[in-house]
């Protein structure tokens, strides 16, 4: 059966609003699986999924692993630091050798923008982009959308501001595309040095001061400063960044409304976000983590040809994957 998403999930930019809603709706029945004593259904029993991570990651990799195991798939983890890549093997050679072992899907994370598409065009297995360079991180964008939808319902007209290191963030790009396709108003805020040139051409507002963003927004998605990707002095210091752009309790208390706080993690507490905000009553950061597993279950299920209307039935098969 051909998936209604196509062969791969590489980005949110090419998806239609209906395809995005399909993933969000399919994730809903999978949420409940994580709350059960037996956290497993047989939906992908017999499928083999390779997690091919050329970049260090803990949260994303573990979230995908949980999703795969809860769907009863067989999983193999390959990290570049322990693979033939260190011996000079190319990305395509690695994937083709894995595919020769009759795998069904590859989840890839890579430091090069476009790596997921490059791979998807050269192998028959389904490919899921778990983050490629500064391009996109579609499943993170989807879990952010699901978290916002849980709180607001319909996202049409809702005002969401992405704050921080937009320049280096693949999460920001996926959020912008996904939010706009679902009718939300989107803004960005950060130092000029950390905003991509021409960002306004994507149809987003640009705020130079975080106070203006807080006054406007109903939700803030606070981005981590990606110091590992910075090759020059993008900011004077971490202390100065926190003073000018940090999301603090004092700043939020001056807002005209309660503001939902999201963060893709990992957090630099005391830099882009203060602890009393991250752990505060309006933070949904842990909800994002929970929703991440459900979203990734939905993506894997749909790419494998699962029918959306059968997701609820798949959810009901408690323990069917045990063997």
Descriptive notes:
The protein is α/β, with parallel strands linked by helices. It has two domains: 17-136 and 291-314, Aspartate/ornithine carbamoyltransferase (Rossmann fold); 138-287, 3-Layer(aba) Sandwich (Rossmann fold). It is built from twelve helices and nine strands. It has helices at 17-31, 59-70, 91-99, 115-120, 138-152, 170-181, 210-216, 238-245, 249-253, 275-278, 285-303, 311-315; strands at residues 48-53, 74-79, 105-110, 126-132, 159-163, 185-189, 205-207, 219-222, 260-262. The strands form two sheets. Strands 7-6-5-8-9 form a five-stranded parallel beta sheet. It has a four-stranded parallel beta sheet with strand order 2-1-3-4. α1 packs across α5, α1 (17-31) packs across α11 and α2 crosses α11 (285-303). The longest helix has 19 residues, at 285-303. The protein is globular and about 55 Å long.
Task: Write a concise keyword list for the protein shown above.
323 residues, alpha/beta, Rossmann fold, 2 domains, 5-stranded parallel beta sheet, 12 helices
């Amino acid at each position: 059966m051909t998936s209604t998403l196509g062969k791969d999930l590489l980005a949110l930019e090419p998806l239609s609003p209906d395809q995005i809603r399909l993933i969000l709706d399919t994730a809903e029945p999978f949420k409940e699986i994580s709350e059960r004593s037996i956290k497993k259904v047989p939906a992908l029993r017999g499928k083999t999924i390779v997690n091919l991570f050329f970049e260090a990651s803990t949260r994303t990799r573990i979230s995908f692993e949980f999703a795969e195991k809860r769907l009863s798939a067989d999983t193999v983890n390959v990290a570049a630091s322990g693979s033939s890549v260190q011996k000079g093997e190319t990305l395509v050679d690695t994937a083709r050798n894995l595919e020769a072992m009759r795998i069904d899907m590859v989840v890839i994370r890579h430091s090069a923008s476009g790596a997921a598409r490059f791979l998807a065009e050269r192998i028959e297995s389904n490919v899921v982009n778990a983050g490629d360079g500064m391009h996109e991180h579609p499943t993170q964008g989807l879990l952010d959308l699901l978290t916002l939808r849980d709180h607001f319902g319909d996202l049409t007209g809702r005002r969401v501001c992405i704050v921080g290191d937009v320049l280096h963030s693949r999460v920001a790009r996926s959020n912008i595309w996904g939010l706009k396709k679902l009718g939300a108003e989107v803004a960005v805020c950060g130092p000029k040095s950390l905003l991509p040139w021409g960002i306004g051409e994507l149809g987003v507002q640009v705020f130079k001061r975080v106070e203006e963003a807080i006054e406007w927004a109903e939700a803030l998605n606070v981005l981590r400063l990606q110091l590992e990707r910075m090759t020059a002095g993008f900011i004077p210091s971490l202390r100065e960044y926190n003073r000018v752009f940090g999301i603090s309790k004092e700043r939020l208390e001056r807002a005209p409304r309660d503001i939902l706080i999201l963060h893709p993690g990992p957090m630099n507490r005391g830099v882009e976000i203060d602890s009393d905000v991250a752990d505060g009553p309006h933070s949904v950061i842990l909800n994002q983590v929970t929703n991440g597993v459900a979203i990734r279950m939905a993506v894997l299920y749909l790419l494998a040809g699962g029918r959306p209307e059968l997701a609820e039935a798949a959810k009901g098969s408690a323990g069917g994957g045990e063997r």
